[in-house]
Amino acid sequence: MRQGVLLVSWGLILQLTLLLFLCFSKCHGGSLGEIRGLAPQISPSENSEPFLPTLGPSPMMPLTPLTNGSIPALSGLCTLNFSAVETLFSITTTDCWTSFAPYLANVVCCPQFDATLVTLIGQSSKFSGMLALNLTHSKYCLSDVEKILTSRGANVRLQKICSIQSANLTEASCPVVSTDAFEGRVDSSRLLSACGKIDHVNECCDQVCQNAISDAAQKIALNGLPSLSGAAVSPEHLTRIDDCRNIVLRWLASKLDPPSANSVLRGLANCKINKACPLVFPNMTHVVQECGEVLRNQTACCKAMENYVSKLQEQSFITNVQALNCAASLGTKLQKANVSNNLYNLCHINIKDFSLQESGCLLPSLPSDATYDKTSGVSFICDLNDNIAAPWPSPSSEPVSFCNKTTKLPALPKATSAQKGIQMQNWKVPLFMSALSAIKLLLL
């Protein structure tokens, strides 16, 4: 039986491979080696419009609406109000679409999945009066949510991709669970005033809502504990504050309509994701050997650097600010390994080189949701101001930040319409990536 499954899988792989060759030979009259030439060449000095790459529907899925038409068999043991977040389920399905969820995980998919779960518990608390689930209940509910999403086209490994566990739906170590207890300890009017609607650009610097959330989390974390005034804060108490922050977010989601709650939660998530580089840096021994303190062969050095960066390009889409952080992190690691030459300048490394290729792009620092169209597939906005040189860190360099006025960040793209995504339906590189993703899944 196992052998039969393997035969079917390899048969699909052969069909997909043949499809790739036919697609590129007939549609472009060229070879697979010419893929890079298909990407639009954009000058960073141009006043360019944002680009919406279209991730063509996977060969594993028919070109139909984003659902398999089946009604998932739910546990019947989860009492959360799923209908309250129906719109968010649709958004999450598209943002976490099948084989592309791992590539959009850090910046789009997982923040949206998390926002949906927070809003779901918050909205349901209007009837239950509880801002958390017990562990048994949370297992049923998380399983049901995943069944709903995957039945509509989301990735079947969503929990693993986003590191979401049933315990994330509980109160964890936070001592306050009920809405009554929460509102008895927190200045709810101040919290709503600060977080009812946030400025997605300025919030990351001004932290008006974030500070209000932290204050509320600290207050409920102290419930049942003596005052910590003047005392050192223990790691256990810091963990409790973090757990209580989730309770605060759920309460906030209960006081806003689901779209507004989702907007606030995604805005707060953007502040967090742009603070660091999400890429995993592999071993750089070969780069250090070829590009060490005494540079003997520039060609060999740049080839080693190009090979290294190509490994980073296999990981995920990232935002332009994350790319700057990644460039700074990699440059610092190389400098600590006695690479003193500016390899980015020497080898012409741009910040977009840190994002997923072949159809890779940098997402705007405030990434938007993906959109789905039956004809063109899944689309999302790219920042076309990403063709700028990666900055090599210097001893005087300050950390990349939204709020550092001396840091030159890539400009945000202009507003656009969904029509641009439809116009890109004949761009074949995304179809190539979609097929490769399907093959990769079959090999797992």
UniProtKB/TrEMBL annotation:
The At1g61900-like C-terminal domain, residue ranges: 275-348
Segments forming domain SPARK: 75-223
Keyword terms of this UniProt record: Signal
Residue runs in coiled coils: none
Signal peptide stretch: 1-29
GO CC, any one term: plasma membrane
UniProt-recorded name of the protein: Uncharacterized protein
Organism of derivation: Trema orientale
